[in-house]
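yo, Large ribosomal subunit protein uL30 is done. seq:
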Amino acid sequence: MFAIVRLRGEVNLRPEIKDTLAMLHIHRVNHCVVVKEDPHYRGMIQKVKDYVAWGEIDDDTLAMLLERRGRLSANRRLTEQYLKENTPYSSFKELAKAINSGSASLKDLQIKPIFRLHPARKGLRTTKKTAQQGGDLGFHQNLADLIKRMR
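structure:
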């Protein structure tokens, strides 16, 4: 699974990139989504690479996102009690492992696909350069560090 975090706003944004961000359900800065690793999403990520940070997400980081930022319909918090009563999973770690392996999806469990994060603690390096050039945009080997700073 890939996590995608939007880092740049929409001023002077080309319409095709705006549409692609809308298809990914990333409408605002500091919002995060988790998507499958398939060619369709890879193409969309490639198109918006100058506006987002993305990378593979591990089970622990996904469990932390679900626990702290997971929401249900009507903006209710995702709780362990809800998981035990309405899903076959009893903990956030179990759910994260199932989502990462592909045996479960957020949509099937009626969890909102967007995680609204805080701005990064201690700030970002820069949103004008890629991660390889010393910035924060594009592919991250350690996206978990950025997400944990934005928890």
